[in-house]
UniProtKB/TrEMBL annotation:
It comes from the Eukaryota. Keywords: Membrane, Transmembrane, Transmembrane helix. It comes from Sexangularia sp. CB-2014. This is Tyrosine-protein kinase ephrin type A/B receptor-like domain-containing protein. The chain crosses the membrane at residues 92-112.
Amino acid sequence: CVLCGPGTYAASLGTAACEPCGTGYFSNVSGAATFNECTPCRAGFFCPRQVNAVALPCPRDHECPPLSGAAIPCSWLHHAPPLSPSCTAAPALYVVIAIVVAISLAVIALVVRRVHRRATA
């Protein structure tokens, strides 16, 4: 019988084979007897390898939902603080939307005004 290292568990009782906990899971103990002793990577952390002794903290501007095997970069104009399970829209996104709406309304107003002038001329 062999003692399985961190990030692994005994494949079956009485064998020397150890299985990895797998991506999205970790185990910081030696001697895990079953997969149930592997801990799911919780929200805000990621477990990228097949054998993880610890969960890694999700970096800034990335999202890490539960059972993450990778830190996923936030999309354009979105952000996330460290240890975040999800990205949110950055305030700059709302400014860009407001500017686009204002320009669109100004163009529509100019077109309507020009059409109205031609119709009354």
